[in-house]
Amino acid sequence: MKKLLFGTIGFAALIVTPALAADMALKAPPPPPVDIWAGWYVGVNIGGSWGRAHDTTTYGAPPVPFTSTSSHLDGVIGGGQVGYNWHSSNWLFGVEADIQGSGERGTATTSLFIPGVGCTFAPCGTAATLVDQEKLPWFGTLRARVGVLAAPTWLFYVTGGLAYGEIKSSEIGTGTTIITTTIVNNFNTTRAGWTVGGGIEGVISGNWTGKLEYLYMDFGTINYTYAGLGVFNPVFLSTRVTDNVVRVGLNYHFH
Question: At 113, which CATH number?
């Protein structure tokens, strides 16, 4: 009886063992890990800007220096971004575009007095005041990114490319001889410039990453001409706007 029992078990083992081996051979290998850093992504961001508006005003022909001012151009920013990454070994290459709404604005005020000639009263001459105001309602960038993965979930990168935005300028001039006259000149233009910066980005969970980024932007110099008051005519205004941006962002990567 024992011999029959052991024989039956051995025969069953001979049948089951090849079947299990064949079943194991047919199982698919585990899928490769998902590369979160490669492909398309979209995201949102919020931060602050610390810009400068440099205004230089001259008048007359040939031009006579009037004022040269520098005002802070600060405010909160927020917007969204979209980009694409190529990932090779520890290196990442990508392109990113973003668009931002901005509350940046600044104001500078300058006063000047020009003594008169042959006057019989005092004070004799022309007093003038200029108030320069700048706003940056929105801006955007189109940039290349080059980064290195310090760890599988941490990216350090540098970035640079095109910057563009709307710059609103106004110059309010007040001149006083015997009476006071005020003129207001408003200018609105969309400018293209350049930007450079860098940041750090890390995996939060799944397809989500978070980033901290700094950008410096330069929109170049904008020149305006308008009719002034009395001896202050014509008036030439030259404005240069630069900006520093620090923002945090959240990205979702598609795979």
Answer: 2.40.160
Bridge partners (DSSP) of residue 134 are 106, 169
E strand spans, 121-179? 125-151, 154-176
Of 108, 131, 106, nearest in space to 49 by CA: 106
Beta bridge partners of 203: 209
Range of the domain at 47: 38-253
The number of distinct structural domains making up the chain is: 1
Instruction: Say if 239 falls within a structural domain.
Output: yes
Q: Taken in order 157, 158, 161, 164, is the CA torsion positive or negative?
A: positive
81-127 pLDDT tens trace: 999 999 999 999 999 999 999 999 999 888 777 665 555 555 666 77
Does residue 130 belong to any structural domain of this protein?
A: yes
* Cα–Cα distance, 129 to 174 (Å, whole number): 5
Q: Could you tell me the pTM of the whole model?
A: 0.80
